[in-house]
Amino acid sequence: MSTLLIVDDDQFIREGLKRLIDWKALSIREIFEAEGSYEALELLEHCKPLIVLTDIRMPKGDGLHLIEQIRQRQWKPFVIVLSGYNDYTYVRQAMKFQVEDYLLKPVDASELTQIIATCTERLQGQFIEEQMQRESFQLLRNNILLRWAQNRIQYDQLREKLKFLQLPLLMKERYQIFLIDWHTPEEGELSRTEEQFRSFAILNSMEEALQESDRGIAFLNEQRQIIVLFTDEGQDAEAFAAGNKCWMADIAQRYGIILKTPWINHIGKVVTLPHLLHESYGEALAGCTRIVTEANEQDEAPLSNNPIIRQVELYVQQNYSDELSLQLLSMRFNVNNVYLGRLFKEETGQYFNDYLNRIRLGHAKKMLATTALKASEIATAVGFLDPNYFYRKFKQVRGISPSDYRLSINKHV
Questions:
Q1: What averages of pLDDT result for each successive group of 10 residues across the chain (413 residues)?
Q2: Domain annotation covers residue 393
Q3: Could you tell me if residue 300 is inside a domain?
Q4: Is this prediction's pTM over 0.70?
Q5: Is the Cβ–Cβ distance between 324 and 383 less than 8 Å?
Q6: Which of 34, 43, 298, 368 is deepest in the core (most CB within 10 A)?
Q7: 201-to-159, 250, 262 alpha-carbon distances in Å
Q8: Alpha-carbon separation of residue 194 from 199, 265, 398 (angstroms)
Q9: Are residues 9 and 101 in the same domain?
Q10: Where does 233-375 show beta strands of DSSP type E?
């Protein structure tokens, strides 16, 4: 919705214009009035109308003065000029200040409607473009900070990009990362909507709290967990860490109740150099990984006592990287595939595909810890045809991405 300012020294004309067309149908939610440019400039400063409809010749400040002041002050409303038949010289002068259009008095309702509709459409376009620019800037900011935390950016590049983002973070004496997780293993898989709500709500709360306290900055990792980077000048490391822990515990208690969401703080160590930030992040990730691992220690489940299912389990554990399905296994062991699927669920308590994924993910986890292979190469090596599916399943079961899991493991190396 837009706002409009009508500037004319004649009250009857102002009232007539307000009644001439259906302004609400054109997305104009509020109309301001002024008798001349002096009053109009005050309204522009305080009310910031997006469209200005102004007469040219007025005793209490003419329209040309108004338009000139609008441009000099770098305000950006759309300006439409009202003029009489003998005001053509003034209209030409007004055009030098980038007015949108002009209308001759008496004003034609259909022409005014068309001009205002064009202005509101352009305003909507500007709003969308500005919103996209803001989102693009936020995405760039988030990506740079995350690459820093994950040690995936050269120091020279980091310095230049933080300078561009106007984030003076490299000259601090101490750094510490907290990782906020909003999902407990007991909850199972969340809907995408619920994940987005929790992440967005906690990030907004943290940004507001950090801005008020001037303690640091918050951003997201690939799992939409919130990374809080604390920076410090002047305190010793022990006091810095203790203050951060106390402050975060208070924030978690206050906002967790308000947002009605789990809020678990995982704490990284204090580091004194920017290029060691990944060590703090890795330690926070390790805390998160321990919780998820404890809830998922089922990889070495005992084999079934049923002879058919026991054979299937042994075959899968030895050939997990091959193409496997109930159809293929039923042919191999000479049983009906529907019967095999039902029997497998009854004996193991899980569907065959879930069991197969768990076995493959268990081997992927070991390879992430012991090899330098890329995550996509590991996905292929353990039997996943689609790396994106592997990433989603790994995160669903382990709680973090393959790259963050590797970082948390390497932290102990």
A1: 91 92 91 93 92 90 90 90 71 74 86 90 82 79 92 91 91 94 76 88 93 92 91 88 93 87 90 93 77 49 80 87 90 90 90 91 84 85 90 83 79 49
A2: yes
A3: no
A4: no
A5: yes
A6: 34
A7: 30, 17, 12
A8: 9, 19, 19
A9: yes
A10: 264-271
